[in-house]
Amino acid sequence: MPAEMVMILVGFSTAFALTFLAAFIWAVKTGQFKDRTTPAMRMLNDDK
Amino acid sequence: MATSNIFPNTSETLQQREWISGNGVLTAHLPTEQQRQSHAQHHVEQHTTHCHHCGELCADTSIQADDKAFCCEGCKFVYELLRDNNLCAYYDIENHAGVSLKNVPTIQRRSRFDYLEDETLQRQILEFRSGKVAKVTFYLPQIHCASCLWLLEKLYKLNDGVTASRVDFMRKEVNITYNPQQISLRGVVELLTTIGYEPELHLNALLDTPQSDTPQVDTLNTDANQRTKTSDKEKPKRSKQSVLTSLYLKIGIAGFAFGNTMIFSFPEYFSDAGTLDERLRGFFGVLSILMALPVLLYSASDYFKSSWQSLKRGHINLDVPIALGISALFIRSVVEIAHGATSGYLDSFTGLVLLLLCGKLFQQKTFDVIAFDRDYKSYFPIAVSVLRGGEETTIPLATLDVGERLFIRNAELVPADSVMESKKGHVDYSFVTGEASPVEVLQGDVVYAGGRIVGGAVEMTTQNSVSQSYLTSLWNNDAFQKHRKTALEEVSDRFGAWFTVFVLLLASAAFIAWMPDMVKAVNAATAVLVIACPCAMTLAAPFALGWALKIFGNAGLYVKNTSVVLELTRINTIVFDKTGTLTDSADSTVEFAGKDLRVCEQEYLAAALSQSSHPLTRSIAETMSYALVRGMEVRNFDETPARGFMCRVEGHLIRVGSAEYVAAPLFCEEFKRTISGKRSVLMPDLRSLDYPIRHYPATDIRKFGAEVHVAIDNDYKGFFTVKPTYRSGLRELFATLRRKYALFLLSGDNDAERERLSDLFGINANDDNRAMAFYQTPHDKLERVRELQDVGAHVAMIGDGLNDAGALKQSNVGIALASESGAFSPACDAVLSADKLARLSDFISFAGYTRRVIIAAFWISVVYNIVGLTFAVMGWLSPLVSAILMPVSNATVIGFTTLATIIGAKIRKL
């Protein structure tokens, strides 16, 4: 396998992985791991 | 017997006022919980109507709306409010979801939220404010079910001014966005209070920032500033959350980098050197460095910061070798990649950081569990006197609600921020601020938790619930620290530094030894730096002691801090106080001997006696109805510890205390001769009135029990005798303790009880006079403790928090016994629930056990390090393997100490 192709593929996959890292950072920063109980309870009674 | 009267000339009204003699037990002092239960059961038999709102049993069915019964008007009001706003789904989500409003008389008293109108205060409470939008977060301890959540998020339906509200269920917080032009902050708080969710406002925490716009706020602020030091404890709660958040982030990034660098190193592992394309190797190397950089700069930043901090102060802390290890790995990898030799060890580097952080998280979580339990599950085993329906009742501090009327005596602590209800009083904030001069407070003023009442007893209404952590932080205030480090702490402190130096030397030695072989040299040195884990040794003590504190707390011994547990293992002498410690002041026989007292005189006396917190006066006061003394004006209260006190009730001078204190000794003796010798003079009156006086021969006058003499307007009236009841289990306790410790008893009272005590103590009364001492002043007790210490004894003093404060402070471990009084002095090291006194030997033995657990964990850690370091120096360990072993060893030590302490507690049934 030519080295260039590996480099391109690795570059793509790394960039792709980085978006997930960014998503994780965003989730932590916006407090989505802070309160994991209330949203579940809130959802059940949303329509009342 | 039980209903006969102490005093002669009893009018009928007085009989109704429940003066109790004989066994001296007053029904009003039964635990309130029991009362409530029997109350509830009583109603079950009659009818089982539950309040539609809160689900409590209704006393009757008179309060109704829409065919639904309510327990009180408050509940009905909330129901109607919700019904009118189409919010009845509140009751569908959970049955009887409501918060009972029965004990909240505060709805009517809205003026208590007046202070929320204050601009400066608002600025501090509000998180955000601009024109039409304001945001605020409240802590609502009442949140308990899905209905609460639902209703609180529908606040906008109750008031148009509220735009949105959001609940954090676990934290019991609600974040409210509202329009300040339509509803004020006070309006929001009142709205919440109306529906049963009164926010808990930490005035002290709010007032921290010094801002002085109005003079009124200025005075509040000076107070608050003085309190800043101690209310710091409130703050870390927020920052702890952010520490955890950033820890999660750091772990996430390290994990990401670890996964990727590992993939990039695969080709290296699978291909023989040389077969891999040079360009690819370089490419992977650069990518790895890019991945590792955020790990170095962000994830591992704490280690660098911490070691830099310690180096700046001229110390070497435990993070130094770790920081060195990871930087060695990183730099070496970069150098090798730059030279194109290998693709470095960045996978090891990132993995190492990841594992270190995971260990940290585990440690943090375990600590949080301990801290949480200490703050919320175990309580100061202290009781407070509250007034319910005009009667004084004692309840545990933990169950104290907002809006409760407190009755606080001289020298007792204010347990929660309260509003003064009495006309005037004096508060000594020395526990909070260190400033000893008492401050005058007037009716309506706020008295902060931790203040101590000086002078006459006062009434106040609680505004905030008790903050356990705040009281603990007060207790741990530097002013009351004994500044002693136990051997174990010193050893582990010094050990940390030496160990670090040793590891650094060993790493350099390993590096030099492997020198020509750079790869091996770096590997071995890094492995040494990483695997060496003094952490395990330093963790053993905090974790074992943390668990011990928690276990003690749940079992009724509230220990100030961890060093007390260790100090407890060193004691060899135990000194007991008698009155209120060995005896139970709630359960003693009280009799009066002396002149006839007029009804008004009895009332003055009752009013005076209720002021003091001394166990004897409390015993006497408990035989009297509190209703009797309400509204009486008590002034000029002045107490001389262990001697007596005087005050003016309705202008009459009352002196209560020892014979010497109350009247001139000669006069007293004369009086005693009068009532014992020339009995005939007084007898006719007494006999005709069925007077409960006992007539002793002159020589036996002191044999009955402790005496409390009284004089009204310089006229000697007579004395109360208090015959104590000893707490149960003392004989067994003394028998057990005697095997290992020297026991002493210091009593401030007369020696009437010498024989009974000798029997309990298990000694011959005539043989050993040193073990027991009577007529001891607080100063004598202190001196006695000091004498014992001078001859090398490590003394534990068990006494009553106030009257023995000096001796408690002087002793190595001062344990204050808490029964029905809020008399708690920060000078003590531990507070023991009175009914757990019999378990004292178990507590002490558990402290010793904890110490052994720590030492065992120490040895585990030592063995691990010796083995690990040997392997590392030999170059048999890759840095990554050591990176796995280190957190594992941490976890082992933490797990071992946790399990061992818990099992030890189970064995002792603590």
Can you summarize this structure?
The complex is a heterodimer of chains A (48) and B (910). Chain A is an all-alpha fold and 48 residues long.
Unreliable runs of chain B, pLDDT <50, ≥5 residues?
1-46, 105-109, 204-238, 674-703
What is the H-and-E element order of chain A? HH
Most extensive chain interface and residues per partner:
A-B, 23 and 27 residues
Largest sheet of chain A: none
Please state the CA-atom Rg of chain B, rounded to the nearest Å.
34 Å
Classify the helix fraction of chain B into a percent range. 40-55%
In percent terms, what proportion of residues of chain A is strand? under 5%
Low-confidence stretches of chain A: none
Average per-residue pLDDT of chain B, rounded, comes to 73
General form of chain A: rod-shaped
Mean pLDDT of chain A, to the nearest integer, reads 83
> Structural class of the helix and strand makeup of chain B?
alpha+beta
Give the tally of β-strands of chain B: 28
Report on this structure.
- The complex is a heterodimer of chains A (48) and B (910).
- Chain A contains two helices and no strands.
- By secondary structure, chain A is mostly helical.
- The radius of gyration of chain A is 19 Å and the shape is rod-shaped.
- The termini of chain A are far apart.
- Chain B is an alpha+beta fold.
- Among the domains of chain B are: 63 residues, no CATH class; 103 residues, Alpha-Beta Plaits (2-Layer Sandwich); 143 residues; 93 residues, Calcium-transporting ATPase, cytoplasmic transduction domain A (Distorted Sandwich), CATH 2.70.150; 96 residues, HAD superfamily/HAD-like (Rossmann fold), CATH 3.40.50.1000; 135 residues, Calcium-transporting ATPase, cytoplasmic domain N (3-Layer(aba) Sandwich).
- Chain B is 48% helix and 15% strand.
- In chain B, strand 19 and strand 20 form a beta hairpin.
- In chain B, helix 11 runs antiparallel to helix 15, helix 18 packs antiparallel against helix 20 and helix 20 crosses helix 21.
- The longest helix of chain B has 35 residues.
- The two termini of chain B are 40 Å apart.
- The N terminus of chain B is likely disordered.
- The interface between A and B is medium-sized, with 23 and 27 residues.
